Amino acid sequence: MKLSMRHALVLTAATAAIFAAGCKAPDKTDANAPAAASTAKGAQIAGLPTEKDRVSYMVGMALGKQLEPIKDEVDFDVIAKAVKSTLKGDKLLMTDDQAREVSEAFGEKMQQKAVVKAEADAKNNLDAGKKFLADNAKKPGVQATASGLQYQVVTEGKGPKPKAGDVVRVHYKGATLDGKTFDSSYERGQPVVFPLDQVVPGWQEGIQLMPVGSKFKLWIPGNLGYGEKGTPGGPIGPNATLVFDVELLDIVQAPEQPKQ
What we know:
- By secondary structure, the chain is an alpha+beta fold.
- The protein has helices at residues 2-8, 10-22, 36-42, 51-67, 76-88, 96-136, 185-188, 201-208, and strands spanning 142-144, 150-155, 167-176, 181-184, 192-195, 215-220, 242-252.
- Strand 1 (142-144) and strand 2 form a beta hairpin.
- It is elongated.
């Protein structure tokens, strides 16, 4: 049960991350550098004059980041109390068996909450997408296909159109309906090359409409994008309608398959 383990063992994960960072082997170029160099650099941190202060703060930062997904479900004062009692060797308020039971019950609760939220998000995104596309279809220059894909020709190129099995090189920017960019090859400064038959259906259909050299705007309904699941843990919600600015740069020669 991934969700329960994630939430029940956040402190363990944080601790593991801390020790992994602390035990990382030094780079060869730094192997002969004085050990005092990093300490001296750390001493410049305002409000954290000693190494103990800095290490303690670093541990707190790591724990805080790991606990962020459940910050509304926990009491930080109680967490601090439990940490202190454990480290001091005081009598704990829970046995290991009780802690395990609490962990399992909490995991189940969080999983149920996630399911309810996902179902609500799926419905809300579906309704919002339908309304948006209905309004968008009335705008000048917006065209629609039988599948429900909407597109607008920004610049029409003069080259050939790709086929389903082709490999293409594109520049693109993807955004949600609220305008938030979730991916952009422009920001990375490098176009993307991929087989056309290995992307979401809305991309497959939309790019096949584009002559090489074209720039299109695509509005992809959820059923032609990432569907009811979206990208779990990622920026694309279930049934989300997506907006893409796409520039088809080239049709790339597909690599030859090795002979059997």
